[in-house]
Give the backbone structure.
Amino acid sequence: MERNDVPDRLVRTIKDCLLGIANDSQFEELEQWLAADKANRRFYERMKMPSGISESMKKYLDFDSSEDIRQLRSKIRRKYRKSIFGRMIRYAGIAAVIILAVLGGRIIIDSSDKHVIPIIGKISETAVLTMPDGSMIALDKSTENSRVATRENVDIVHTENSLICTPQSDNVASASGEISFSSLNVPRGMTFNITLEDGTHVWLNADSRLRFPVAFGDSQRRVILEGEGYFEVAPDAKRPFIVETANQKVTVLGTQFNISAYPNETRQTTTLIEGSISLSVSGSAEQFVLKPGQQAVFSCKTGGVVVKEGYTEEVSSWREGIFLFDGDTLGEVFVKLSRWYDFDYYINDGLEGKIIRGNARIPDDVNSIFSIIEMVARVEITQKSGIIHIDTKE
Amino acid sequence: MVRTDHLFSFEKLNEHDNGAFEQMFHCYYSALCFYADKIVKDNDLSRDIVQDVFLKFYEKKPVFDNIISLRTYLYRSVFNACINYIKKYNRSAPDDKFVRNVEVPESEDNYLYQLESRLLDEIFLGIKSLPDKCRQVFELSYIERCSIKEISRRLNISENTVKSQKARAKQLLKERLRDLYSLLSFIFF
């Protein structure tokens, strides 16, 4: 007799009988089952013996899924590396990760006590708009889809994760006298974008600030950035657009580019996507003119600028919620990650400078990113007393 | 650690969600390895066989109507992989088979192997259904063999609390597992 699947009901009945919690009808069912076949009876007799059941339970406990999931993950990783290697050696590592990420993958880090990483919540702070008079407006749900301020004949409207500055008439720029700056502060854990009075669109990455005049003057359009921003500058030949960071000044006419100038990073990068920009370093007259696809890297240590080739819109993939760590060090990746998810971390000796490549969609839950990093960097990420530890994989 | 409590979303698994895939792995792994071991009688080989089944699953991404067809698929895949191994093994080293006593099981035996694997899942579910703190203490203490001090440190609770949770776990298990409890006492207690 072919007996392939074991019905749930039978399993439960036998369990309840073994545990001594069965009712009469279950015992009856058991009796019928035992009578049906000698092998069944032998089986049950064995399970009822202390040696029988305890042997089985010990055996069962030998197979620990929370340990062995690592082996499975590395098998999957190896397999994908291998199959793609032939065609795209260079991108093999990334590809494996992309496949995992694109599948909508949440790779859940196993939750045995040693490895429990509680889901680190996105920070609940909201972006804040500070007006020149010092008044602060929290851009939360309560102000969504409403006008939050009007100044110099410009309406400022808050829609979901963005601010739009709309002139009430065409002649805002005529506002004379001194220019006063407002400030948009984007906390960790979110991005925000703003359309300035001239139509220039700026995406701000997590933990960034943009100071801007609600109405630009007649001669120039000047904003001050701390953190990372992607700019799509509206063309206006009469008024050059200037982005200042702590150490650099970027002058543009109409173009698209990305600036990353976080105070806690050792380098600041400016990447030109379209158009033309010129960049200068404070205290120096030298001008660096960038062509599309070029990236200027300013080293905070040496104060020097190096221009590199071959950059594309990928530098601003953060706008789409994609984490790209293409050749970044583990240290740099964790600086970025902790900007999105509020956590303290400790990178074990020697791992800080490890270069990793990969990308991940920014999910609700940082654990997925951790497990991608665990795979590409071959490290182990655990939590000990509230701190994320990054260690060499044993 | 015992992992029978991992539930996974069947819908998400069908949508090829990696999280659901891994949770399914946690759900079935121990029992499937136990089952494979019944056939090939080797712990490490069983692990390999079962992991390869999951690897194939990951690649092929089969879709199922219900949990029973999923389970049937998994057990059948493991069974086939075991049989392939045994056939290959017996071809390459025909004289060894009596030493290791690996043979293609009778369908009768196969049925009971499956039954036993599933039974163990059910029994460990009883342990898993202990209240959270209680279960953690129980697992750390009886399965991971941690000292009271170590448990107190890891769970950030006082040593006295560890002691009282241990007693509570024993009591609850005594009620829930009744007859089995006395059989198990020399594994766990």
Summary: Chain A touches chain B through 54 residues (CB under 8 Å). The two ends of chain A are 49 Å apart (CA to CA).
